[in-house]
Amino acid sequence: MKHIKYIIFAVTVSVFVSCDTEEFLNPLPDTAVAVDGFFQSDADVLSGVYGIYDALQGVNSNTESNIGDFNRGVQFEHLLTEHRTDNTRNATLEGSKADFHRYVVNANNVESEDYYASMYEVIFRANNILDFIDVADESNRARYTAEAKFLRAYAYFKLVRMFGAVPLVTSVVGPTDNESLFTRIPIAQVYDQIITDLEEAASALDNSSKSRASKAAAQGILAKVYLSLDSPDYAAAQQLCEAIVNSSDFALEGNFHDVFYNELNNEIIFAVQYETGNSAESQSFSSEFTSSTRAGSEDGQNIVNENLVLDFAAFGGNRTAESYITFGTSNEVIKFLPDGSDITTSPPSYGSSARDAGNDYIALRYADVLLMHVEAIMAGGASTTNAAALSSFQAVRDRAGLTATVSAITKEDLLVERRVELAFENQRWFDLLRFGVAESVLSAHSVEMGYVFDARKLLLPIPAREINISGGLLTQNAGY
Question: Which residues pair with 341 in a beta bridge?
Answer without folding.
Answer: 350
